[in-house]
Design goal:
The chain is mainly β and about 550 residues long. It is built from eight helices and 24 strands. It has helices at about 15-20, 25-35, 55-60, 170-175, 195-200, 210-215, 530-540, 545-550, and strands at about 5, 35-40, 50-55, 70, 90-95, 110-115, 135, 160, 180-185, 205, 220-225, 240-245, 265, 290, 310-315, 335, 355-360, 380, 405, 425-430, 450, 470-475, 495, 520. The radius of gyration is 33 Å and the shape is elongated.
Length: about 550
């Protein structure tokens, strides 16, 4: 793999010259304090292909035969470069070349143009005439600007100008390139330059704040450790797109964090923050915000200005309420607020129509707003370990819901509307005060896991047998003396837990559960006659023979 290292902040000759310098302790020291931008790995051109020339003089003697021209350490190109009418690939690596002749525009069959590690300061406007050009690689040169004519290259698929001296980006280029799928432009001097997610992954993660502030326009990703405070100068990093400050000792964030207009991801997990600056609301490009595991007591109202936010995590904090402005985050897809001290939710949360995951476990909620039913795209809803005594009927509108956890609340009943959640695959109602289930529970035909443990159920509805996809049924710690005959219709059931129930009778249909592998129950409570029937019935299941032989009294 070939790569080049560009040391930002140095007075630089050509990149090729920099790379040829011997490695010394002083060079290494500079490298450690400067920001490294890696030029992309490019496979070496194949000089063995027919029509390939590596000598410019020889190529000029046979111009019609030239399809690929590979040149190294070139200082100049002939003015009549256009004589290579059949040229498809031109590669120039290294040397002191400062410009391309205008005749490059006559290379009408050129598909690939690669000029790397030269002193090229500009591209001629005639480059816009290369209508068949598919790839333009111009990394590690000294380009200060790009001609607008690049926008005419309608067949261009790949453009690489990494590690140059560009100070601006002509937007018309992108507008005129419908086939462009690979754009790399990092390592330049362009302010407020957002990189694509693919290119961002190729940039280095800066871990030295001092080095970052010495080259602020070159920093796109940063992760700091052992930090107890941050300077206001942090706001100079205007190209920063990812900032990770996890596991530090930060008690506050500087107000200048609001200057990081290109920031897309901010994580300040596990610090000592008690509040967030109002300026946070100016980060309108922010997509992900994680401030979990901090002693935060409130969120700023300006949070609602983060209109592009897709993921918000504020778990294990000390929040007692949420701002009404939270409802403005209409692009939010993930909201994790577990382990706080929330006693209620703002009605405005119903505006979060794109929310897919909402986690509110381990709070102090006693009721839910009816507006929760407006979150029609919700797929996961976590409400375990709260103080809920009832659920709104509007919960039945969440027809895309797949996972609903309500464990450890104060529920004595669930609304019949729960039966409308036909996409539900997991329903956890354990450790509540349920005395009965609505007949409509049988309509949850997508259900695979149902936990009803730790309630006071005395019977189950016959409709339970309609849950044909159910695999796990936990009925531990209830008041069940018998089970419905329809239990045998649960053809996919593999686990049935009945411990700590006063079961006196099991339905004969239990023998129809041919996929049953686990059965846990207090067999001692069964009469001997029932034990004999059970042993016979279990013979057609997958329950371990050892368990069957171990039935007390047999």
């Amino acid at each position: 793999m070939r790569f080049a290292l560009l040391l930002i902040g140095l007075s630089m000759p050509s990149l090729a010259q920099t790379l040829r310098q011997p490695t010394s302790s002083s060079v290494v020291d500079v490298a450690q304090t400067a920001l490294a931008v890696y030029l992309p790995s490019i496979a070496p051109a194949d000089s063995t292909q027919p029509g390939t020339f590596t000598s410019l003089a020889k190529a000029l003697r046979h111009p019609k035969q030239v399809k690929q021209l590979l040149l190294h350490n070139v200082s100049a190109l002939p003015a009549d470069l256009g004589v290579f009418k059949n040229l498809e690939s031109l590669v120039i690596e290294g040397g002191t070349l400062t410009s391309l002749p205008a005749s490059v525009g006559k290379l009408v069959n050129l598909k690939r143009l690669r000029i790397e590690s030269t002193k090229l300061a500009q591209l001629p406007a005639e480059i816009g005439q290369l209508s068949n050009l598919q790839s333009l690689q111009a990394a590690g040169n000294q380009l200060k600007s790009l001609p607008g004519e690049l926008g005419k290259l309608t067949n261009l698929e790949s453009l690489n100008v990494v590690g140059n001296q560009l100070t601006a980006w002509p937007e018309q280029i992108l507008a005129g390139l419908p086939k462009l799928t690979d754009l790399q432009r990092r390592g330049n001097l362009i302010p407020n330059l957002p990189l694509s997610p693919e290119e961002l992954l190729k940039t280095p993660v800066v871990t030295d704040l001092k080095a970052a502030l010495a080259n602020p326009k070159q920093v796109y990703r940063m992760a700091l450790s052992n930090a107890s405070e941050l300077p206001e100068s942090l706001g100079m990093l205007t190209n920063l797109q990812q900032l990770r400050l996890d596991n530090n000792m930060l008690a506050q964030l500087p107000a200048s964090v609001g200057n990081l207009k290109n920031l897309q991801s901010l994580s300040v997990l596990n610090n000592q923050l008690t509040k967030l600056p109002e300026s946070l609301g100016t980060l309108t490009n922010l997509k992900s915000l994680n401030v979990g595991v901090n002693p935060l007591q409130e969120l700023p109202a300006s949070l609602g200005d983060l209109v592009n936010l897709q993921s918000l995590e504020v778990y294990n904090c000390k929040l007692t309420k949420l701002p009404e402005s939270l409802g403005n985050l209409t692009n939010l897809q993930t909201l994790r607020l577990s382990a706080n001290q929330l006693t209620g939710l703002p009605a405005s949360m119903g505006k979060l129509v794109n929310l897919s995951e909402l986690t509110l476990t381990t709070n102090k909620l006693t009721a839910l707003p009816t507006e929760l039913g407006n979150m029609l795209n919700l797929k996961q809803l976590g409400l375990s370990e709260n103080g809920l005594s009832s659920l709104p009927a509007e919960l039945g509108k969440l027809t895309n819901l797949k996972v609903l956890t309500l464990q450890h609340n104060q529920l004595s009943q669930v609304p019949a509307e729960l039966g409308k959640l036909t996409n539900l695959s997991t329903l956890d109602l354990g450790l509540n005060k349920l005395t009965a289930l609505p007949e409509q529970i049988g309509t949850l035909t997508s259900l695979k896991r149902l936990d009803l443990s730790g309630n006071v159920l005395t019977n189950l509805p016959e409709s339970l047998g309609q849950l044909v996809n159910l695999k796990q049924l936990n009925l531990t710690q209830n008041q069940l003396a018998k089970l419905p005959e329809s239990l045998g219709d649960l053809k996919n059931l593999s686990s049935l837990r009945l411990l700590d129930n006063p079961v006196q009778q099991l339905p004969e249909s239990i023998g129809k559960l041919t996929n049953l592998r686990e059965l846990s129950a207090n067999f001692k409570s069964l009469p001997l006659a029932e034990l004999a029937k059970l042993k016979t019935s279990l013979g057609s299941t997958l329950v371990s023979p050892l368990q069957v032989r171990g039935l007390t009294g047999l």
